[in-house]
Each structure stands twice: as C-alpha cells, then as structure tokens.
Write a structure and sequence with these properties.
Elements (H helix, E strand, L loop, with lengths): L1 H8 L13 H4 L4 H11 L4 H8 L3 H15 L4 H10 L15
Helix pairs in contact: 3-5, 3-6, 4-5
C-alpha cells in the first residue's frame, strides 16, 4: 500500500525501532513543506495556510502540490492520512507563533 511504500522510501523498514529520526526530511520535505503538511493534516484550506504562515495563497498551493508529488498521493486527504500513519507530527507544534 501507499503508506508502506512511502515508509520504506523514508527508511522505516521494520517499524518504529528502525524509523529515521526525521521521516519528513527523509521523504524530501522542506521545513516549510512540513509546516504546510501539518496544516493540511489539520484540515486547513490554502487561504488559511497562507494566513497562518504569512505567505500568499498561491505559494501555499504550490507547497501543497509539491507535498503531494513528494508523497506520491493524489489529494490532501491522502497526504493527511499518510502523515498520520507515519506519525510525522506526534506532538510538535508549528514554530510560527501558533497559540493552539
């Protein structure tokens, strides 16, 4: 399945004991793409992502497109599900000053 394929690409061969310290980095995601993926996983729209990260909605859209391509998924829901399955964001919060 797709999550297993991406997990293998990220170096997660046999479970958490062998998982890389930074699976998002292993997938080729930049720091900004990680922030965007976290917001996508929270159900935010491109406009909401743009407001949160102080970027244009077009830039947010480009980041989302790049994330989908890097993860090999076709939609935001798949990207969010994959991020959850790979535990990309277990407890960390955005560093952009979010007060949640």
């Amino acid at each position: 399945d797709q999550a297993q394929h991406v997990a293998l690409a990220a170096g997660e061969a046999q479970g958490p004991a062998t998982a890389p310290a930074d699976p998002a980095g292993a997938l080729g995601l930049t720091g900004r793409e990680r922030d965007v993926l976290r917001l996508v996983s929270d159900g935010r729209t491109n406009r909401q992502i743009a407001e949160e990260l102080f970027i244009s909605p077009k830039t947010a859209s480009v980041h989302v497109s790049n994330i989908l391509a890097k993860l090999g998924v076709s939609g935001r829901g798949e990207a969010a599900a994959l991020a959850h399955r790979l535990a990309l964001f277990p407890t960390e919060r955005l560093t952009s000053g979010s007060t949640e």
